[in-house]
Design a protein that fits this description.
The complex is a heterodimer of chains A (203) and B (246). Chain A is mostly helical. Helices cover 89% and strands 0% of the residues of chain A. Chain A is built from four helices and no strands. In chain B, a hairpin with a 4-residue loop joins β10 (147-151) and β11. In chain B, strands 1-2-3-4-5-6-7 form a seven-stranded mixed β-sheet, covered by helices on one side. In chain B, strands 8-9-10-11-12-13 form a six-stranded mixed β-sheet, with helices on one face. Chain B has helices spanning 52-59, 78-81, 84-90, 103-106, 178-192, 196-207, 225-236, 242-245, and strands at 2-8, 13-18, 32-36, 41-44, 68-72, 95-99, 115-119, 124-128, 131-137, 147-151, 156-160, 213-216, 222-223. Helix content of chain B is 27%, strand content 26%. Chain B has a single domain (2-236), classed as 4-Layer Sandwich (Metallo-beta-lactamase, Chain A), CATH 3.60.15. With 246 residues, chain B is of the alpha/beta class. The chains are: A mainly alpha (203), B alpha/beta (246). At the A-B interface, α2 and α3 of A face α1 and α3 of B. The structure holds fe (ii) ion (2 copies). Residues 75, 77, 142-143, 161 of chain B line the site of one fe (ii) ion. One fe (ii) ion binds at residues 75, 77, 142-143, 161 of chain B.
């Protein structure tokens, strides 16, 4: 029982920790969005000789928006985990109280009369723990989704670099700077998300 | 947990639970009371969450737990009723009688199943399997919404925090030497009881009742003459003393 209560405490803390880290992910996602806007403006100005850059900037915007949406979903899920782990923790405490009473009531004539309450508390606890595990699985999936998006971002940066090398020298430096910022933001997000997943899986 | 039968009538009994030797040192010792008939029972001030397992284990010596159909909380303090969330799981069909002003507060302890019966400021009566109990207003003694319980048949007044003191779990269950006893309860009444007006109103009300036993939620139980001695002593005592120094 003790072990299980530690588990719930850990998840409660973990959810808070994940939530706290998401602030940075959001900031980076907004950076990507900003860079994509810059790139779009540049593409518009540079005209025909950088048209291959257009789908790349569209993709960057999409990526940023997806990430922002995923962060919001994760935030919700983390909140749910906090709540679910507290409920499970309380359920666990209730079971402990009933079990202690059971030991203390060994000689009592009607000691069996609270057995149904103990069983209900155990059933509740099982349900709470299952809900908690489901929430954690979902959180893991959402984090994985962001990570996959960032892997895709890697491909985009490689392509963008090649494209940047081909555009007119007038715009080249600008495009290269945009690509680099995009790459850095994606890297940072990946690092944070990895860390979150690590925190979540070390229990 | 010590248990003493205080009254045994033709249809009902009073039992006190207290002086739990297993309780943590830093929490105050409390008395819990069970009024039971053959079919039903009410638990008065069921106690804090830390006490729950001891209380549950103690009551099942006397009855199957589902026979407890009513709970009563004199006020909202944690030593009175922080166990509510667990009783709520144990007795989902029971009714909790408590001051109306505390409903939104007490529900913080968890009250998903139990029915909350808000007691109006004027008090009221409750029939438990034919036994009539009276909720006696004791507002501001010390809590701003507060009741005692009077049983006219048993001539017992459950007085909540009034008459109580911060005793140790080794102290006797009944007042033995009144003069010695008041030393233990003086500070509690001076500091915890806030209002002279409330004190006077409570004394006036209680003097009208025919009481053999006055049972506080902490400390020792008063018998016969000690009840009058206590009322006289309280009448002369200055309360709300923290205001003196501020
Ligand atoms: Fe109190
Ligand atoms: Fe108290």
């Amino acid at each position: 029982m003790r072990q299980s209560s530690e588990l719930e405490t850990t998840f409660f803390v973990t959810a808070v920790a994940v939530s706290a880290r998401l602030g940075h992910v959001l900031k980076e996602a907004k950076n990507i969005s900003l860079e994509a806007m810059n790139a779009k403006a540049l593409v518009a100005r540079a005209g025909e000789n950088v048209r291959t850059f257009k789908p790349i900037t569209d993709y960057m915007v999409e990526l940023a928006n997806d990430t922002i949406r995923l962060v919001a979903d994760i935030d919700q899920e983390a909140l749910r985990i906090s709540k679910a782990s507290l409920i499970a923790l309380r359920g666990n405490e209730a079971v402990n109280h009933f079990n202690t009473a059971k030991v203390k009531a060994q000689k009592a004539l009607y000691r069996d009369s609270f057995e149904p309450a103990l069983q209900d508390a155990e059933k509740d606890l099982h349900l709470f723990q299952q809900n908690l595990l489901r929430n954690i699985r979902r959180l893991n999936e959402l984090l994985e989704e962001i990570e996959n998006r960032m892997l895709a971002a890697n491909v985009v940066t490689s392509t963008s670099r090649l494209e940047a090398a081909t555009v007119s020298p007038l715009y080249r430096a600008n495009f290269e700077a945009i690509v680099e910022k995009f790459e850095n933001a994606a890297k940072t997000i990946r690092a944070i998300v990895r860390e979150c997943r690590k925190v979540l899986n070390v229990r | 947990m010590q248990t003493i039968k205080l009254f045994e009538g033709p249809f009902h009994e009073w039992i006190v639970f207290g002086r739990d030797s297993e309780k943590i040192d830093k929490i105050v010792d409390t008395n819990q009371y069970l009024v039971k008939t053959n079919r039903e029972a009410i638990l008065l001030d069921p106690g804090g969450i830390e006490l729950f397992s001891s209380m549950l284990a103690a009551v099942v010596h006397f009855l199957p737990v589902e026979q407890i159909t009513h709970l009563f909380a004199s006020h909202q303090d944690p030593d009175i009723i922080s166990s509510l969330g667990l009783w709520d799981k144990t007795l989902p069909t029971a009714t909790l009688h408590a001051p109306w002003i505390w409903e939104g507060f007490l529900r913080h302890y968890g009250c998903n199943n139990i029915t909350y019966n808000p007691i109006a400021d004027e008090g009221g009566t409750l029939k438990v399997d034919g036994i009539e109990l009276e909720f006696i207003p004791a507002h501001y003694m010390h809590a701003s919404g507060n009741f005692g319980v009077y049983d006219p048949q048993a001539k017992i007044l459950f007085s909540g925090d009034v008459g109580g003191g911060l005793n140790s779990h080794e102290d006797p269950m009944f007042v033995q030497d009144f003069d010695q006893h008041i030393k233990q309860i003086k500070t509690f009444h001076q500091r915890w009881m806030p209002s002279e007006k409330a004190k006077e109103a409570w004394i006036k009300r209680v003097r009208k009742l025919d009481i053999d036993l006055m049972c506080p939620q902490h400390g020792a139980i008063y018998k016969g003459k000690d009840i009058d001695r206590f009322l006289d002593w309280l009448e002369d005592l200055e309360v709300g003393t923290a205001l003196r120094s501020s």
